[in-house]
Write the structure tokens for this entry.
Amino acid sequence: MKYNETYINVVPIDYKNLTGIIKNEKWKEHDLRTKKVHNYYCDPCEKFKSICKDDAHNMCKKIRKNLDKIYAISPGKERKKHCLYYKYWFYEKLMNMFLSDSEDKCFKNVLTEFENFKVYAYYGYIDYSCQYDLYEIKLDDLKMHVEKKYLHDYFNNYDMIDNSIRKCDFKNKNIYEEYLNSINKLYIKYKKVECSSEDYNYMLNNCENYFYPEEYYNPQYLLSMLKSCIPGKEIPKNTIKKKYLELEKRSPQVKLKCTKGTYWNKNKFELNMICTDKQEGDIVSAGVNKSPSFSYYQIIFNGVFTLIGVFFLLSLFYKVKILS
């Protein structure tokens, strides 16, 4: 996937302006309030005018405008969803400003300004779950965030893509094929390592935000369906998908139950996972106390020590009897 070219956008999602995410009525509801604070929220963005990238100034103004709408949503699943859209929008816009590592100095300056801007982004209030993170980030890290954005778009629009391919409209065949091949590379990359469903990394890396491990969503299935298309003949549901669902059933059924936890390691806290494989139907002891297991030498030692104790008590009893 080349980042210096326009990425094929089969999925009709407009990330250029987040106002499209929420219904127009909700955005209009906040227009008056936005106009009242317009002069104030533009002031912190003035310093972006003198920075090496012209796009940074407009992006700065959009950040506060979008946060104004997002923070108006009550905390919960809906707000979390829009926060995720916002962060992916930010990372992609930021990456598009830089086409190569040759602009290293400018890259660092822009990142520093945006990191400092977080304090002013919404009048000093920061919801860290809804904020971008630029700490020690490099261009490759930024590309990784955008890769996750592409995967997020694919999974969230999977049914629409699936239905469109089934129509076998050959006008868009090449576009779909190129798009799915690029997504397939990302799918393989993240499923093998970072988002393996049989590994605690899935939770540790927050893969639930951008990756579905079920075989149902395998892009290879859509590519196979695309190749089998006959012009003008629509493909019925579940004709090719069966073999991919069978692969999923064959996968190991041992599933770990994990929770995030921290521990102290070399003067700092480390984030890790605490996992168990306890499943429904496991045999559990019901009130039966297990006897502690001892080694052979431990048993001999305990026996000798007991005999010495008995002889000591008998001798003590004998002396007391004589004295009396």
